[in-house]
Amino acid sequence: xxxxxxxxxxxxxxxxxxxxxxxxxxxxxxxxxxxxxxxxxxxxxxxxxxxxxxxxxxxxxxxxxxxxxxxxxxxxxxxxxxxxxxxxxxxxxxxxxxxxxxxxxxxxxxxxxxxxxxxxxxxxxxxxxxxxxxxxxxxxxxxxxxxxxxxxxxxxxxxxxxxxxxxxxxxxxxxxxxxxxxxxxxxxxxxxxxxxxxxxxxx
Length: 203
Fold this sequence. Notes:
Elements: E1 15-20, H1 24-27, H2 37-50, E2 55-60, H3 71-79, E3 107-111, H4 122-128, E4 133-139, H5 144-154, E5 158-162, E6 166-167, H6 171-184, E7 189-192, H7 194-199
Parallel strand pairs: 1-2, 1-4, 2-3, 4-5, 4-6, 5-7
């Protein structure tokens, strides 16, 4: 019998919470400020508190200087040179409070690009955990969360998105992406509230 609010049934012990880039560099008044982050933070905290040992946090780590990157990433960081490690306060790389307090038991994965599946051990970690569903929260709905969702879908992992635990700097793109997930990826992606997800996550 299907659970209310989750099209493909309850989540079991193989579910993992992937919390994307909830960092000070996006919460503070930087050029990459994401205004919604503080608004969704209490909901993200609820998800983490309920399943801290099943949570993996990602952090977006810029290069020290643009020349360390290749191709369009070099151009990207020339545009945003002020956000490279050589220019910013290291504090901005950290997870926002109080999320950093959950590590451990939560795990941390650092990445250099939008998706945490590239150049990291994340795919191996999920395989080791026998992950059959990925609850993805964090920032931004239309950037790093999008990249995470698409890579998880390609790996055949069920994706569940708590709409109230996602944030973006663009209202329009946030809503457009939620519509995309619901209407074009309905066999692989489910969108629900965090409350519904937690009520249907059986450990």
